[in-house]
Queue: 2 jobs
Job 1
Amino acid sequence: MQFNLKKSLQTAIKGCAILASALTLSTVGASAQQQYVYTEDGFSQGTVTNGKIVSRTTIRAERYIPTIWVDPDGCEHWVMDDGFEGFMTPHVTRQGIPVCRRGNTCAVMNSDQLFATNQATINSANKRRLQQFFQSAGASAYIIDGHTDSRASDSYNLNLSKRRANAVAQVARSVGARISATRGYGERVPKASNRTAQGMAANRRVEIQCIR
C-alpha cells in the first residue's frame, strides 16, 4: 500500500511538470505575437512580448478625397483616389439620369505660335498667355485636343499632337484648371486642305473645349 502511494505521487508530479511545461510554451507563444494598432492617420504593425512592443512598423494610410471627374462626353463621375487605388461611380440624379454638362470649343490656338517645328515645349511667354486664358475662362473642366498637318507619318503626327495637348494641359493644371482629357488626333481631323501652306498652317492647332 505504501509502495503504490509513492508511485502514484511520482506519477502525479511528472504530470504536473508536463502540464507546467506546456503552459510555459503556450505562454511564450502567446507573449510574442503580431498586433495591429489603428491610429487616425494610419496603423502600426508590431511584435508584442510580455505586454511590451519590441518592434513596430508604422504604415501610413492616405485619406480619400472625393472629387468630380468630367469625362470627354461632359458627364460627371464621383471619384475617390488615394494614389494607390481608386473608386469611380457615375454621378446621377435621383431618377438615375447621368449628370452631363455641355461643352464647346472655347479656344483654338495655332501651334506655330506655341511650339517650334516638331517640338512640344512651350516657352515662358506663351505659358503666361495660356495661364491667363485658363484663369479667366471660368469653365469647370477642359478637354485639350492636339492636331497637326499631314507632313510626316501618321504615327509621328499622332504622338506629336498628343504631346502638345499634354503640354497645354500641364500649363492649365499649374493654375488649378481641371483637365478632363487630352487627345491627339494628328492629321486625322483637318479643318482645311493640306494641299496648301495656308491650309496646313490652319491644321496645326490646339483646340480647347470648355465644359460648363
Job 2
Amino acid sequence: MELTLQPISTQCCVSHRDFVEDDRVVCYLVREADGLLGRRDLLESEAANLERPSEVLCRWVIDYQPRRVEDNADRALKLTAENLFLALADPVNPPDETNTPLLQFLALMLERKKAIKPRSVTADGLRTVYEHMRTHQMVEVPIGNLDADFFIKIQGQLDVLVGGPKKTEGVTSAVAAVVEQTAPPPESPPSNG
C-alpha cells in the first residue's frame, strides 16, 4: 500500500530555518482543517512552538538527510505503509496514544503481507518483537487487543491509509475486511452422524 505525501521539507515549518544534515526533525502526519492530508516537518528544538493542527494522525523523529540530485523524485513522494511502520517503530519514537494504534494496525497488515514476522515477546510481555524481513531489523510493537472497537477507534487514521469513505458511512469496508480476516473462524456445530 502506498500513500502519496509531500517529501520531507527542506526547512522548519516553525522557524523557517533550513535543515542541515543530521538535524533532528519531527515529522507530523496531520489532517488539515479542510479535511486534506498534510505533513509538518520541524526541528525537534522547535516542537514546543508548533501550533498543533486539529488532528495529528502520527508523529515520528528522523535525522535529516538532504536529497541527492540522483534521488528519484517520484519515489520520494511515496510513503509506503512499510516505511511508515519502520519510522513509527524506530526506538527514537517512543510509543504514544496517537502512534501506537496505527503501529499495531500496520504490524498486523505487514505481518499478513509477510513483510515482517513475529519473533518473540519482550520479557515484560508488553511488546511483540518483529523482524523486518527485507532489512532484518528487529522492532518492538506494543501488544494490543485488535477487536472491532480498536478499528472503530482508529478509523480516521485508517481512512488516510486506505482511502476511506465519507464520514457518514460508518466503519470503512477496509476496516471491516481486516476485522473479518483476523476474526477466528466460526465454530461448526457438531455433526450428528
